[in-house]
TrEMBL record:
Pfam families listed in its UniProt record: TPR_19 (PF14559)
Species of origin: Kutzneria chonburiensis
InterPro entries xref list: TPR-like_helical_dom_sf
Domain of life: Bacteria
Gene3D superfamilies from the UniProt entry: Tetratricopeptide repeat domain
Name of protein: Tetratricopeptide repeat protein
C-alpha cells in the first residue's frame, strides 16, 4: 500500500503523462514514488500503464528517472540483461536507496534468464562511486543483489563473472562469501582475475603475505601482465621492502619496457633503495607522464623519504 506522499507522486505522474504533455516530469514523479518504497508494486504497475506515453523518455533519457524506467520496461520486454544493467547504474548513482528491492528483481523470470556477465557488470556499476557498503544498513539494502548472485551463479558459474561479483561481496564486508565465490570460480577454471580479487580481499583483511601469494598465483597464470608485477612491487613497497619492489617492477619492465607507470615506479623505488641522485633525476623527468593523483604522490613520497638525497632535488620532486 502506497503512503500519502507516494500516492501524490503517482497521481501527478499520471496527470503529467496523460494530460500535461510532460513525460519527463511524469518519470520524475514515478522515480520519487519508487525511491520512497522500492518494494511497492503500485508504481511499477503505473509505469507499465504509461509506457507508451513515456516511450521517448525511456528510449533516449540518461537521467536517473529515465534509466530507472528503462530497467522495468526492459524487464517487461524480456530483456533481462538490459534491465539489470540499468538498475545497476541507478544503484551506483544512489546506493542509499534499495532499488533492487523492486518486485521484478526477485522474480523467477528475471533470475532464470539474466546472464552471469550482465549481472557481474551491473554489480560493478553499483560500485562506480566507491560507496561505503560495509555496514548492516547497506548490506540490508543490497540483500537482493546477494540473492541474485547466489541464484545466478548456481545456475551458470562463469569464472570471470563470479570473480567480478565477488568484488561486490567484498565491498559489502562479506569476505568469507567473496572467497567462497572465488573458490566456486576455480572449480570451473582457474583464471588470473579470480586471484586478483582474492588478493584484494586479503588486502582488505590486512594480510600482506596472503595478498602477495594471491598476486603471485595470478602472475603464474598470466606471467606477461605488467600490472600484476606492479601490484606486487607496490605491495612490497608498502611493507618497506624496496629491494623486493625493485625486483618486481623490473620483471614488469621486461614485458612492457615503455609503460610509463612502470618506469616511474622503477625510478621511485630505486631512488629509495639506492639513494641515487641520478634515479631521483629520472623520477623528476618521468613523473609528469602520470596523472597528478595520489599514486604519483605516493611514489614521490617513497623516493624522497631517503634522508641522504640532495635537498635541492628532493624539493624539486616535491614541487611536481
Amino acid at each position: 500500500m502506497s503512503n500519502r506522499g507516494t500516492s501524490v507522486d503517482l497521481t501527478v505522474a499520471q496527470v503529467m503523462a496523460h494530460c500535461g504533455g510532460n513525460p519527463a516530469a511524469a518519470a520524475d514523479h514515478l522515480a520519487r514514488a519508487i525511491a520512497a518504497a522500492p518494494e511497492d508494486p503500485e508504481p511499477y504497475a503505473l509505469l507499465a500503464e504509461l509506457r507508451s506515453e513515456l516511450v521517448d523518455v525511456v528510449r533516449g533519457g540518461g537521467s536517473l528517472p529515465a534509466v530507472l524506467a528503462q530497467s522495468y520496461v526492459n524487464f517487461l520486454d524480456g530483456d533481462m540483461d538490459a534491465a539489470v544493467l540499468a538498475i545497476g547504474s541507478v544503484t551506483g548513482a544512489r546506493p542509499d536507496i534499495a532499488w533492487a528491492g523492486a518486485p521484478w528483481f526477485g522474480d523467477e523470470r528475471f533470475l532464470g534468464a539474466v546472464s552471469p556477465d550482465a549481472l557481474a557488470e551491473a554489480a560493478t556499476r553499483t560500485l562506480y562511486h566507491d560507496p561505503d557498503l560495509d555496514s548492516d544498513s547497506m548490506r540490508e539494502r543490497f540483500q537482493p543483489w546477494f540473492h541474485a548472485i547466489e541464484v545466478v551463479t548456481a545456475r551458470r558459474p562463469v569464472p570471470a563473472a563470479l570473480a567480478r561479483m565477488a568484488i561486490l561481496l567484498r565491498a559489502s564486508g562479506l569476505t568469507d562469501e567473496s572467497f567462497a565465490l572465488c573458490d566456486k570460480a576455480d572449480a570451473v577454471e582457474r583464471i588470473m582475475l579470480t586471484e586478483v580479487v582474492r588478493a584484494g580481499t586479503w588486502r582488505k583483511l590486512g594480510d600482506p603475505e596472503q595478498t602477495a601469494a594471491a598476486f603471485e598465483r595470478a602472475v603464474a597464470l598470466e606471467p606477461t601482465s605488467w600490472s600484476l608485477h606492479l601490484d606486487l612491487a607496490d605491495l612490497r613497497a608498502e611493507q618497506g621492502d624496496f629491494a623486493g619492489a625493485v625486483a618486481h617492477v623490473d620483471r614488469g619492465l621486461r614485458h612492457e619496457p615503455a609503460e610509463p607507470t612502470l618506469r616511474v615506479a622503477a625510478a621511485a623505488y630505486r631512488t629509495r633503495l639506492t639513494c641515487s641522485a641520478a634515479d631521483l633525476v629520472e623520477l623528476i623527468e618521468l613523473a609528469p607522464l602520470l596523472p597528478d593523483d595520489p599514486y604519483r604522490s605516493t611514489l614521490i613520497d617513497y623516493a624522497c623519504a631517503n634522508p641522504d638525497l640532495p635537498a635541492d632535488l628532493v624539493a624539486k620532486a616535491r614541487r611536481l
